[in-house]
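Hi P.,

Sorry for the delay on this. The queue was packed all week, but I finally got your sequence through. Input first:
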Amino acid sequence: MGLDLLRMSGEKEMTYKEAIEKAGNSLTRFPLIPIRGVPLMSIIANNFDSIWAFNPDPSDLLIATYPKAGTTWTQEIIDLLINNGDAEACRRAPTPVRSPFLEIHSPPPIPSGLDLLKKMDPPRIIKTHLPFQLVPQGFWENKCKAIYVARNAKDNMVSYYHFDRMNKTQPEPGPWDGYVHKFMQGQLGWGSWYDHVKGYWVEREKRNILYLFYEDMKENPARVVRTIMQYLDLSVSDEVIDRIVELTSFKNMKDNPMANYSCVPPEVFDMSISPFMRKGEVGDWKNYFTPEQLKMFDEDYEKQMKDVHIPFRSLI
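Then the structure:
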């Protein structure tokens, strides 16, 4: 595709950032519309038939997460593994161009995830936030590899809250207290966190899904990089693994313009409200929950997760 140069629907060649800037006032806070019971931004919901019809190549790799659970981090690790730790190769374009977001649709001339994928040769790294039941069946019929990253509910909620504050295309998050209830009831974009993490967990063995935990990535990133490497049938040296760990540290990724979403103008991602890469910590939820919210949330969590045991950490 070239270094972040797009030519979409007869438009002149432009960068991803220029395409977003040109869309200008067409970008707004899109309301949520349920698709099979899952709330999705209207611009995604209205194009869901084309998303559902997507047929990947068997060599394609799917990275699936609930929003703000370590998606970009995982995308960068995998791109570096495939490129043998070559940092310059991974600066060829911003993350959403190197690893398209399957279901995202935006006003022209911003390319949709499907537009970008059509212009790429397999194997492709494909990102999604879709819950398991909304992932196009071609991924499983073609036996594509898939990596799922789960983050503990409380930290995930805090991160998503701040993202919704700064992302001017998703519904207004409202105050924190109300957001807690929306999260518990699955009333956010991409639906219920509980259904999301459980859906991929129960299918992980049948579908050969590598199920990872954000907290494990923070605790021992080298071990997780090796796990991903083995799952992808790759082989890189220990030196390269150490380099990947360093290049994908929170600080380095936050400073990397090809990974920190600085390609998205402030009219869309207002990073004066909250940066795209905010803290990347485990346990930040303790700075937000009141004792009353904590009690309510923990009781609800036990009810929602009683039918499956997923070994999350840092919940208490």
